[in-house]
Design a protein that fits this description.
Elements: H1 3-10, H2 14-22, E1 27-30, E2 40-42, E3 48-51, E4 67-71, E5 79-82, E6 91-93, E7 98-106, E8 109-117, E9 127-132, E10 136-137, E11 143-144, E12 151-158, E13 167-174, E14 182-186, E15 212-217, E16 220-225, E17 231-237, E18 248-253, E19 260-263, E20 269-273, H3 293-296, E21 309-315, E22 323-330, E23 352-360, E24 365-372, E25 378-383, E26 392-394, E27 403-404, E28 406-408, E29 429-431, E30 434-437, E31 445-451, E32 462-471, E33 473-482, E34 486-492, H4 503-506, E35 509-514, H5 515-518, E36 522-530, E37 535-540, E38 543-549, E39 558-565, E40 571-582
Antiparallel strand pairs: 1-25, 2-3, 3-4, 4-5, 6-7, 7-8, 8-9, 10-12, 11-12, 12-13, 13-14, 15-16, 16-17, 17-18, 19-20, 20-21, 21-22, 23-24, 24-25, 26-40, 27-32, 28-29, 30-31, 31-40, 32-39, 33-36, 33-40, 34-35, 34-39, 36-37, 37-38
Length: 584
């Protein structure tokens, strides 16, 4: 099942091989034609294709044909072609010299079908087999077992009758290369309880399960399930997927987003997900402007505030422990003042860095397709060993590309509101922090964070969020110049919004400093943490200042710094000149 990796390498020129070898950190190589999830397929000769999966909405009498991007140099460059046939994105099964795919719609009818072909993506008359009359959607591409001939794919099924408000995670498998299929359904605990800091319902009715299954070991498969709660749910199977355990909350944090897992040729597994925390739900019954009743009761979402950072982590021991928890992409338009309208709505209503698909490439590289809408989605390549780094430094010489600095403008909220065009579940954005000339002079810049009342904004909190390689122990150093009042620093195991007023409610560590503590010149803060002991210490310019006790569970270690100007009233805030995480 990994033969394609050698064939990709074989068709590359030597300079192309060298270019691929040199890629280390996530590097953008293209923009997919359609939202990520199942757009990419790899042909037996090593050609990589990324398909546009749906026709754009057009007023022309003769619509533009579907298209795909093709790469014959290991994903380094892409050329657009018109798509032929009806197979399109599919999986090549080497053992049977057969292409297989599954679809949830055919000729305007909903259900579930499997296509098989000896020709491939361009086949216009594949063998067709109908598996279900029920509505199945978010259909993943079939996968082949690394330990046998079983192939499988997953879907979510919409319930009917009394179950019409529920979704079911479905695992479909075949032991005869798709000639016949069996299906297994996995249920989950539904519902969402309003618990402070929430004051309203989160999207929890028909909010999606979007299950994804991967083999961690020869006798353990894991199903990762999207959830309206604060973490993904995991279900396990030890019989090839014929039965599944009751789904349980995991340490993969994330809300109403879609995961993906990739088993590498050497047995390691990389997980892709949004390790992010949305803002607490507001009291939607008194929202101004008002939201539709479906949003109030949790059938739809008001705004996605946790889809701007995409992450990856790797396991070597079958999922017992993971390393990395690193951002592989920050939404390119995350701070856009016209976020609700940027990007053509015919491309996608959502504009996010969630939904993934990934394949292994030669030389330990990974190709990832991630995101929704042409404004935000990207294809990127990185070296899997980049996930093993333990240190990171940010001096802002590369600008703000590695920092989250946006807050939200008060905007219309809700799902697919025709009157406001392309503003599906989205709020407009504004920068929350800016690079300014270093107040100490010279030709360098520092990140300036302050707090000013602006009635146009969601709230007045200023802040910035920075990711570093996860660890249970380590040191985070900060060069800070406090101008007025207080600076708040929180250390967490997931991404937070810069303007989140409840960071201290759930972050494992946090503290505040004011001018009386550290003066108004640049000082160096060294935060030495040990999540296994549940303690940390803070030093200022090399002298111990105080200890900090951990106030929330942190099983994955720390991977985020959140810096906020969250004091009462306006404040001239503070400057950040250096952020650095080192092993200890």
């Amino acid at each position: 099942m990994y033969e394609y990796i050698d064939r990709i390498e074989a068709r590359m020129a030597e300079d192309e091989r060298d270019m691929l070898r040199r890629i280390w950190e996530p590097t953008v190589v293209g923009v997919p034609l359609g939202d990520s999830r199942r757009d990419i397929c790899i042909l037996p000769d090593g050609e990589i294709r990324s398909y546009e999966l749906f026709h754009p909405i057009e007023s022309e009498e003769k619509p533009t044909p579907l298209a795909y991007l093709s790469s014959v140099d290991g994903g380094l460059s892409w050329k657009k072609h018109y798509a032929r046939g009806i197979m399109h994105s599919c999986t090549y099964i080497e053992d049977a010299d057969l292409y297989v795919t599954a679809v949830g719609e055919r000729n305007g009818e909903t259900g579930l079908w499997v296509y098989r072909s000896k020709i491939g993506p361009d086949d216009d008359a594949p063998e067709v087999q109908k598996l279900s009359d029920y509505l199945h959607f978010d259909v993943y591409l079939p996968k082949k077992s690394a330990f046998g001939k079983r192939i499988w794919f997953t879907t979510q099924r919409r319930g009917t009758g009394e179950d019409s408000e529920r979704l079911f995670a479905c695992y479909h498998y075949s032991d005869d290369f798709g000639a016949s299929w069996k299906s297994v359904e996995v249920t989950r605990r539904d519902g969402f309880e309003i618990v402070f800091p929430h004051k309203g319902m989160r999207w929890s009715i028909r909010s999606g399960m979007e299950p994804y299954v991967e083999e961690l070991t020869a006798d353990c498969m894991v199903m990762m399930i999207r959830s309206p709660h604060d973490s993904f749910y995991l279900s396990r199977s030890h019989d090839g997927g014929e039965s599944w355990s009751e789904p349980e909350p995991s340490t993969f944090y994330g809300t109403n987003t879609t995961p993906f897992m990739l088993r590498l040729r050497d047995g390691r597994t990389v997980t892709f997900w949004n390790n992010t925390k949305p803002l607490a739900e507001q009291n939607l019954r008194i929202a101004d402007p008002p939201v539709a009743n479906g949003v109030v009761i949790g059938r739809y979402e008001d705004a996605f505030t946790n889809r701007d950072a995409a992450h990856a982590a790797i396991t070597e021991d079958g999922g017992k422990t993971y390393l990395g928890y690193r951002e592989i992409l920050l939404n390119p338009v995350r701070a856009n003042a016209d976020f609700r309208y940027v990007g053509d709505p015919t491309s996608s209503f959502d504009k996010s860095s969630h939904q993934f698909q990934a394949f292994e490439l030669p030389y330990g590289k990974v190709l990832v397709s991630v995101g929704q809408n042409a404004a935000a989605r990207r294809m990127l390549i990185f070296d899997v060993n980049w996930l093993y780094e333990t240190a990171r430094r940010e001096d802002f010489l590369g600008g703000l590309k590695n920092i989250t600095t946006h807050t939200y403008v008060k905007s219309i909220s809700g799902s697919y509101i025709r009157e406001v065009g392309n503003g599906h579940c989205a709020w407009n954005r504004a920068q929350n922090a800016y690079l300014m000339p270093d107040p100490n002079g010279g030709h360098t810049e520092a990140l300036y964070i302050c707090k000013r009342h602006d009635p146009r904004m969601f709230n007045d909190i200023g802040g910035a969020v920075w990711n570093f390689p996860a660890s249970a122990r380590g040191r985070v150093s900060i060069e800070v110049k406090l101008v007025e009042k207080q600076a708040r620093f929180a250390f967490a195991d997931r991404w937070y919004n810069t303007c989140d007023p409840y960071v201290t409610y759930s972050a494992p560590f946090w503290f505040e400093l004011d001018v009386a503590d550290i003066g108004s010149d640049f000082v160096r803060l060294d935060f030495d943490f040990d999540t296994e002991r549940g303690m940390a210490s803070l030093s200022v310019d090399g002298s111990h200042f105080f200890n900090v006790r951990m106030n929330a569970d942190c099983p994955t270690g720390l991977s985020y710094l959140i810096a906020q100007c969250a004091t009462d009233g306006d404040s001239a805030g503070f400057y950040l000149r250096l952020l650095e995480k080192t092993a200890r």
